[in-house]
Amino acid sequence: MPGPLVERVSLEFEAQEAWPKDVKLFQPYEIEQILLPDNANCLAVQALLKMCNLDFTVEFRANAEAMSPSGKVPFIKVGRFVIAELEGIVQFINGKGISLTDKLDIEEKADLRAYMALVRNVIENAELFICWIDHETYNDVTSIRNGSVYPWPLNHFRNREKRNQVIKKLKVLDWYNKTLPEVHEEMANCCEALSVRLDQNSFFFGDKPTELDALVFGHLFTILTTPLPRNDLANIVRNYPSLINLVKRVETKYFNREDGKNI
Amino acid sequence: MGTVHAKAPTQTASNISDFAKQSGLKQESETTDIKEIDLQMVQARVDRVNVDGLARTKNDIVEDCVQDLFKAHDFQDVLLKAHKAVVKLDELGCFKNIGVYIDTSKGLNATTDGLEVTFEVTEYKRITGGINTQVGNNEGSILFAMRAPNLFGRGERVQTEYTRGSKKTSNFNLSFIKPFRGKHRPSLRTSILQAHSEWPNSGYKQLERGVQLDFGFYSSSLFKHNLQWEGIIRDLSTLSRTASFEVREQSGSTLKSSLKHILSMDIRDDLIFPSYGSLIEITSELAGLGGNIGFLKNELFFQDNYSLLDDIVVQTSFSAGYMLPMNKDKKITIADKCYIGGPLSIRGFQTRGVGPHVDGDALGSTAYWAAGLHLFTPLPFRPGRGGFGELFRTHFFLNAGNVGDFSLEKMSKGDILETLQKNIRVSYGLGIALRLGSMARVEVNYCFPYKFDKGDQTHPGVQFGIGVHFL
């Protein structure tokens, strides 16, 4: 067995290598298992990798969440590395000399980080709120899908455990006690801010996409296309045609799908 | 345990002391003018049995234990049956202390050969507890226990235990135990348990939470059976970020629902350094009645001891096991697999060191066999003979074993044998074994791995082992 130092050195060499061919992105099953917030994040990472023109294949695993080093989906496996979530993956890619933001100046980069945080803090929390706190959605969709990969009675345990985790998180962020109209208002404000920033550009920062475009695409596309008992989030997003256009643009350009047929 | 006190008039008092020595009973009063008599020739019958000190314990279970005494015909029989009754009373788990007094019976209904047997018992308090140290599989642990013995007066008890080990394991269990009456000595145990364990050799940790039902009984005086059902939720996760992807793939929650049958027979004269007798343990586990884990696993452990000279003992041991998948929908995880190697198994290898490894993580296999040939002798030149030196043994060993993976669809029977015969691992060595209390053994060995596969992790040189169950 090689010593830890040798291992670390070899890992570092590996890290500097070019993008290997067998990169895999792990995520939960799309049709029966994945939930809205997870799906949004998985799609965002897929969009990011496609924007960077990096090859990967998607692997579906029921236990993708447990496999992930951060406990969140998606994660990618590059050689011996496993890297989770959009921010981590962006950093990893930057380490390989690939970046979507190298043309931006410092001010723009700060803006980008701020808008990324806004999406994370508002849209993602709104999605979590709808999926786990709203009783109708939880009972009709979330609990069934989240528990679908577990046998009875493990599904109930897992649902309760996961729901408690989400509640804890939302409590810390002061979202748990919000009412539905308040959530809608937050969501509308966030979309407003995003559409103001986007203005008439094709992407948020000029004519080249950045990770912000990937993140916004992931969330908005998923919100628009996921059938839920209440589609109020989708209705809010539909009030912002410039955002809808951005989603369509990314979809046609990077996912080679027909012009936004689902939206 | 208890003490048997015997008083008899001078004409019958006799070679009681001889008998007492044979049967391990303690004899208290000794008078100088005793004549030698054969106890079997002394006619006796038990007129009365008194049990003193019963408070919560119900009469019926105590009656069951002492009833046999009335069948005794001679004095020796009375003594033996009294001793058996003490053992049975002790097994109830209700009494802290049991004493026996035998006297000639007096009063109106007394017969000429009549005896009166009195058991003096002290019941346990409502709640007892304690802190102990324990030795498990190559790790020491501390045990906090609380018991409520004899809850409803028939030996029922509730106990809760928490153990914390030196290797970051922790266990909690709460059980209710109910012994039943009957000649097969059945008992039922239901427990709720939570166990956390870490397996650095395989790169994973596991949290198990679940329920267990255990029904134990004896089919004869030697064969002990345990029928168990357990429903356990297991959360498996990697120990570190650098764990191999093969282990990472197994992370997540699984539910195992399994039926288990354990048959054991132990006729060794000692648990730690037996000089004769054998031990057999056969375990069959069928997982997959509900849950998403499915396999059939059979394991066998056999140990035989043969004393060459006074205290030079040859010990042979053999263990083998295999598991089969149930069907495609049910999984087998890394935690269900079989592992061999280590100071308690095939010495000269790392723990779980025999078999397939990826990035240093042992992945386990579905079939194995392992055997050991040991020679235990006293220390050279026998320092501390008869005292301290008896805690030690010199230990020579030869271990062999192999692992294999097979599925019935892919292989015929011949192939299985071939896989298990190929790449046999052999190690040998010598060392010193130490008895630790009456439960555990410590071994310090110098090992020479002789034959090994390139995927194995060997551990040549000094190896330290502490545990209960050694190969």
Automatic annotation (TrEMBL), chain A:
Gene3D superfamilies registered for this protein in UniProt: 1.20.1050.10
Protein name: Metaxin-2
Thioredoxin-like fold domain segment(s): 40-136
Domain Metaxin glutathione S-transferase: 188-250
Species name: Hypothenemus hampei
Family matches, as Pfam families: GST_C_6, GST_N_4
InterPro entries in alphabetical order: Glutathione-S-Trfase_C_sf, Glutathione_S-Trfase, Metaxin_GST, Mito_Protein_Transport_Metaxin, Thioredoxin-like_fold, Thioredoxin-like_sf
Record-annotated membrane-spanning stretches: none
Superkingdom field: Eukaryota
UniProtKB/TrEMBL annotation, chain B:
Keyword tags: Membrane, Mitochondrion, Mitochondrion outer membrane, Transmembrane, Transmembrane beta strand
GO cellular component, one term: mitochondrial outer membrane
The keyword Chloroplast belongs to this UniProt entry's keyword annotation: no
Domain Bacterial surface antigen (D15): 150-470
Subcellular compartments: Mitochondrion outer membrane
Keyword field contains Membrane: yes
Membrane topology, record value: Multi-pass membrane protein
Similarity annotation: Belongs to the SAM50/omp85 family.
Record's protein name: Bacterial surface antigen (D15) domain-containing protein
Organism whose genome encodes this protein: Hypothenemus hampei (Coffee berry borer)
